[in-house]
Fold this sequence. Notes:
Layout: E1 9-13, H1 19-28, E2 33-37, H2 43-49, E3 53-56, E4 82-85, H3 87-96, E5 99-102, E6 108-116, E7 132-138, E8 140-144, E9 150-155, E10 158-165, E11 170-173, H4 185-196, H5 204-219, E12 224-227, H6 232-245, E13 249-255, H7 263-274, E14 279-283, H8 285-292, H9 298-319, E15 325-327, H10 332-338, E16 365-367, H11 375-384, H12 389-392, H13 412-431, E17 440-454, E18 457-470, E19 478-479, H14 484-497, E20 501-506
Parallel strand pairs: 1-2, 1-3, 3-4, 4-11, 12-13, 12-15, 13-14, 15-16, 18-20
Antiparallel strand pairs: 5-8, 6-7, 6-9, 9-10, 10-11, 17-18, 18-19
Amino acid sequence: MNTSSHDRLLIVDFGSQVTQLIARRLRELNVYCEIHPFQKVTDDFLAEFAPKAVIFSGGPASVFAQGAPMPPKSVFTMGVPILGICYGQQVMMHCLGGKVERGHGTAEFGRAFVTPQNRVPLLDGWFSEGPEQVWMSHGDHVSEIAAGFQVYGTSPNAPFAVTADLARQFYAVQFHPEVHHTPKGAKLYENFVRMAGFTGDWTMGAYKDEAIRKIREQVGSDKVICGLSGGVDSSVAAVLIHEAIGDQLTCVFVDTGLMRMGESDEVVGMFRDNYNIPLIHADESELFLGQLDGQSDPETKRKIIGKLFIDVFDKHAKSVGGAKYLAQGTLYPDVIESVSFSGGPSVTIKSHHNVGGLPEKMGLKLVEPLRELFKDEVRELGRELGLPASFVGRHPFPGPGLAIRCPGEITREKLDILRKADAVYIDQIRKHGLYDEIWQAFVAILPVRTVGVMGDARTYDFACALRAVTSVDGMTADYYPFSHDFLGETATRIINEVAGINRVTYDITSKPPGTIEWE
């Protein structure tokens, strides 16, 4: 499908870690949108893109700092609705004659409550039961609004929490409506796109058609190998690319020696039983474990794994007759934690083996058709492609595998213990009918030994941590509230059935401040 047939909304990225959540909210409303970093949004770009509306994202900068990100002045004279969020509000005020300041006790981080001042269509459906909860994350604040703007909502530390110039259809909010912790944020976006005149004709079916078209344009008649892990991301990527280019695709499943118990046979069997796509099973466990021997730094582990993956893919690219492209199931949460999406100014959190871990000079070009999607959207795309439920419903499993669930030095002994403990834990979750309620669950083996007593004898074995989280998109997560009975039963099974562990803990850290994985 040609995207020019759709009304388009432009999201100008000023570097927020959650910019893509804005796009996610809009896609939920079937609105076609694109994210572009502020550096690329020039007068010529705006004229060519011709957006029906514009959203300014948040960001970490201060508008009064030297070199602060700014939009082109022409965006304010296009005659289209604009919504500014957090830094986006501040940059609107700064550009249009208002004032932004730092300090004076008006910084806000976390939950806040907005009280209405006047009625504005942007907030239709809000305030039916009093003040509305929002999520704030700002040090600077608007101290004086620009001419033409009025105040429509305040919070204790943000006297201009919601402002608007109705004549020009300019709207600005200090909070983040895109995040889960602003419960009615989706309604705000719904109101904005309705007022902007969008009809909601962008669907996952349309995304699939557009992705297939882009893959064909990018690849042409060249061959592609796809790094297949057996998880939903790589499986959806493989089936999507196969639909686009057919026999030009060969999948490569790399057994790194860092897989869960029985996973290699399960993945290869599952894929070969369901799809007629050429598949190479590459057992490279000795290579990976040899290179990781003695390494304990998490970033070093990720870089080593990333380099070895590319070495293996390069080798098999040659074996299939000179593949020019490597396909991966990279998702947006991977990208935003590793590098700035679309070249924007967001901050790197950690490297991912298929993003930050890639060598600068590699022999293959990348095909990453899921790069702008979240996990739940990938599952929706998988259903659109007709993947079996067993594929679509699998918990995420990281590309570096058990390496990042083994903090500290990796040894074969620790990996064997970890595999057995993880198998017991997942069996418990399935036995209690909880697998589909949980986003991701796993065991991490800790780099400490503890004293225990088993059979009247002293033990000095490893401790492990159970991790289970709920999430919608992987950008934020909370721990799953297991009952104490479940945790006690699971701990007993692990200690009884897994030699080498004598202590079990449960990780109740949310994301943020933690990440879902331990490294």
